[in-house]
Every structure is written in C-alpha cells, then in structure tokens.
Design a protein that fits this description.
Elements: E1 7-8, E2 14-15, H1 23-34, H2 38-50, H3 58-64, H4 70-82, H5 84-87, H6 96-127, H7 137-148, H8 150-184
Antiparallel strand pairs: 1-2
C-alpha cells in the first residue's frame, strides 16, 4: 500500500508537504534571467521546458512564471514551438524517429507552459480588477508581424498615429467653428 501523500494534524485536516522556494533565490534567478538576451533566454526557456516535470528546478519555474518574466517567456513560446530545432540541441547518436518524438514531446510541453503562462498573466491582470481577453488570431498575427518586421511595423504605427492626429485636429477645428458660430448667433 502506498504511503499517504498528506500529513494529518490533530483536527483531521490534511497538511500539504509542498514548500515554497526561497524568495531570495527566486529573485536572484529572476535577475539572472532578465539580464539575458532574447536568444539566451530562449535557450534557457527551451532547456527548462525540455526537462521532465520531476527534474525541473522549482526556483527557475517560479522565476520564469514571475511577473517580471512572464510576458517575455510568453512571447518566446510560440517561437519555440515553431522552430524547436533552433533551441534544442540534437542528441548525438539518436535516430530521426527519436528526434521526431523528442520534438513532439517538446512541443506538447511548450503548449502546456504557454497555457500556464497565460493563466499567470491573467491572474496578474485579474488582481488589478480586469479580465484578460482570450488571445485572438489577429492579435497573435499582429505580435508576430511586430517581432518579425519591427521597422515596417513601426512605420505603420506612425502612419496610423499621424492619421489619428490629423483626424483629432480636424474635429477640434470643427468644434471651434461650431462653438464660434453659436457665440455669434
């Protein structure tokens, strides 16, 4: 018979054996990871995702899912899924089938991590009294466009801002003319 997973106190309530990692160690790991470049952070994130759940470092898990890094990690996960070979080192001597299984498992774990990161971010937003909208294909495409073609994306943003400013100036002018006409009457 298996050992009980929880300890009971005198009142009969179960006490979990789960302990939180040291907050100082987590903040140190957050600082280390936030100082990395996008490529280096991507490799760290890929190594974390590729590791079995039981072997994952809880301090790194808390750091990646921290408010300081959750957005950065969430933006990188789709790239990890799209191009896993860029982040995963090939295992020497493994067959193509073994590599394909490893990539499939990595993608499944990355999808799971993406769901966790989404929920962490939604929780952060909920603490401020708001609900996070579900991710739409348009917003994901907009984000990808910004990541893949930042110069063109900024050009489009500036064009749209200029159009909005011109429209606002036109409305202000119409409002002034209308209020000027009302004063003259």
């Amino acid at each position: 018979m298996a050992a009980p997973q929880h300890e009971h106190d005198r009142r009969g309530a179960r006490q979990s054996r789960w302990t939180e990692p040291d907050p100082a160690a987590v903040s140190t790991r957050v600082e280390e990871l936030s100082g990395l470049s996008k490529a280096d952070f991507g490799r760290e994130l890929a190594a974390f995702i590729a590791t079995d759940n039981e072997a994952r470092d809880p301090i790194t898990a808390y750091a990646i899912r921290s408010p300081q890094l959750v957005r950065k990690a969430r933006r990188l996960v789709p790239e990890l899924v799209r191009e896993p070979d860029r982040f995963l080192a090939a295992v020497p001597g493994s067959s193509n089938n073994a590599h394909a299984r490893r990539v499939k498992q990595f993608r499944a774990r990355a999808d799971h991590e993406a769901q966790l990161l989404h929920r962490v971010l939604a929780g952060m937003i909920a603490r401020r009294g708001h609900l996070m909208p579900e991710p739409s294909p348009r917003s994901r495409a907009r984000r990808r466009l910004a990541d893949e073609h930042p110069k063109r994306f900024l050009e489009l943003v500036r064009e749209e801002e200029a159009t909005d400013n011109a429209t606002a100036a036109q409305r202000v002018g119409e409002h002034r003319r209308a209020s000027g006409e009302a004063v003259q009457q």
